[in-house]
Design a protein that fits this description.
With 106 residues, this protein is mainly β. 11% of the residues lie in helices and 30% in strands. The protein starts with a strand and ends with a helix. The relative contact order is 0.18.
Amino acid sequence: MTNIIEVEKLTKRYKDVEAVKGIDFHVEKGSLFAFLGTNGAGKSTTIEILCTIQEKTSGNVQIDGNMLGTHKGNESDGERMDDQRAPFDHRRDDDFGGVRHVRQRP
């Protein structure tokens, strides 16, 4: 099966802190994939790099055959999330009906 995401030696550094330390993984097209780990393990940072919200320090990230981080200047690798939009603003409220009970309190 074809890989939709390929990550090699991905690293993200903030000054003296290495938030993501040379990780490698791939996701096959059509598969289910999850990030699991303790607080501070780099899960959110990795996802933000994949979504082009943050830039990687080093490594290779390829999504659907397109290498991220190959443009210079103000160009982006893909669509960046607009700070004014919610991630799911295109969804209707009833689309989340199946998980609504998880957050409800008596």
